[in-house]
Amino acid sequence: MQLPSYCLTEASYKTLLLPPATLRDTQKQATKLKTLLRRSKLQNSKLKTQNSKLKTQNLKHCSAEASYKTQNSKLKTLLRRSKLQNSKLKTQN
User: Fold this and answer.
1) Measuring CA to CA, which residue among 13, 64, 6, 72 is closest to residue 40?
2) Domain span at residue 60?
3) Residue 20, in any domain of the structure
4) First to last CA, the chain
5) Which of 5, 12, 52, 76 is the most buried (most CB within 10 A)?
6) How far is residue 15 CA from its own chain's centroid?
7) Has this prediction a pTM greater than 0.85?
8) Is 3 inside any structural domain?
9) Alpha carbon 49 to chain centroid distance?
10) Domain count along the chain
11) Do the domain assignments include residue 64?
């Protein structure tokens, strides 16, 4: 999975941790951190939405699988009864 371009890289993280030389540098660093936090929150929100969609999709698949298993079981029972009935008819003839 490729990370978005705004994700924090090791180099940018180290840059953010450098001690600021002036008040202006401190303000720039604060702005960078705020931007990074905002983007991280946005990414987190998108991932939560994606996770929720995947959970819903998984539940649908599980429900469908259970339905197929039930249907398969009913068909097996019907086949078994049909074979039994067929066997009875053969013995009658």
Assistant:
1) 6
2) 10-92
3) yes
4) 68
5) 12
6) 33
7) no
8) no
9) 9
10) 1
11) yes
- Can you read off the two tokens belonging to residue 59? 């539940």
Q: Report residue 75 as tokens.
A: 């068909």
CA pair distance 27, 40, nearest whole angstrom: 20
Two tokens, residue 21: 């030389």
CA 41 – CA 82 distance, rounded (Å) = 61
- Token pair for 8: 């924090």
Q: Which residue has the tokens 């180099």?
A: 11
Asked, for residue 78, whether it belongs to a domain, the answer is yes
Q: Give the CA angle between residues 4, 40, 27 to the nearest 5°.
A: 110
Cβ neighbourhood burial of 36 (10 Å; 0-12, 13-18, 19+): middle
Query: 2 φ, ψ to 5°?
Result: -85, 135
* Tokens found for residue 72: 């398969």
